[in-house]
Design goal:
Elements (H helix, E strand, L loop, with lengths): L11 H26 L11 H5 L4 H10 L2 H36 L4 H32 L6 H40 L1
Helix pairs in contact: 1-4, 4-5, 4-6, 5-6
């Protein structure tokens, strides 16, 4: 397992410290992105930047862009730029959390631990997909009406969200499992 761990070069105590810092930074940037998203919520974009990411077609994208005033478009631009930092932070946070959970679960089940390592590596793919998605959205925000941009953004956003959700679910379920196993061992 150690040979495939993307964070094998960090000691366990360093992993704990780095993970704590990454979580704080990720949540901080996410908070800023949430504030930037507020003016992006319109009837055409009820989920703000999320609606833009998942628009999929040029007519829907244009409808969203037309629903945003100049201030909203500035917020969208800032959000897309800041998301390049966020994608590095969230992918590293989730990947390291998956790795730590997988390492903790290894004594109780190699397949579940192996899934955690696979999900850790997959977070880097999610970050790459997010970067391409952002590039496509920036093209649209800056005036391109190329019909392939919304399709590309959507095609990157859907698997990105799926990979991130799978990683977060693994961390949640694995963390709960480790907590219960720890309680049983200390009681037994």
């Amino acid at each position: 397992m150690q040979a495939f761990d993307p964070f094998r070069w960090l000691t366990s105590s360093s992993q704990r410290r780095v993970l704590g810092a990454l979580i704080v930074l990720s949540l901080s940037v996410w908070g800023v992105l949430t504030v930037l998203d507020s003016p992006l919520r319109t009837s055409a974009a009820p989920y703000g930047i999320g609606s833009f990411e998942l628009a999929r077609t040029l007519p829907v994208t244009v409808s969203i862009l037309e629903s945003w005033d100049a201030t909203a478009k500035t917020h969208a631009a800032l959000s897309l730029g800041l998301d390049y930092l966020f994608l590095a932070l969230y992918s590293l946070s989730i990947a390291l959390a998956c790795t730590r959970i997988a390492t903790g679960l290894l004594p109780w089940g190699a397949p579940f631990a192996g899934a955690g390592i696979a999900l850790a590596w997959a977070q880097f793919m999610a970050a790459g997909l997010d970067a391409v998605e952002n590039y496509a959205l920036i093209q649209l925000l800056t005036g391109s009406r190329e019909p392939s941009w919304p399709t590309l953004a959507w095609a990157c956003a859907v698997p990105k969200f799926a990979i991130v959700a799978a990683g977060l679910a693994y961390v949640l379920i694995g963390g709960i499992s480790l907590a219960f196993r720890g309680q049983r061992e200390s009681a037994g």
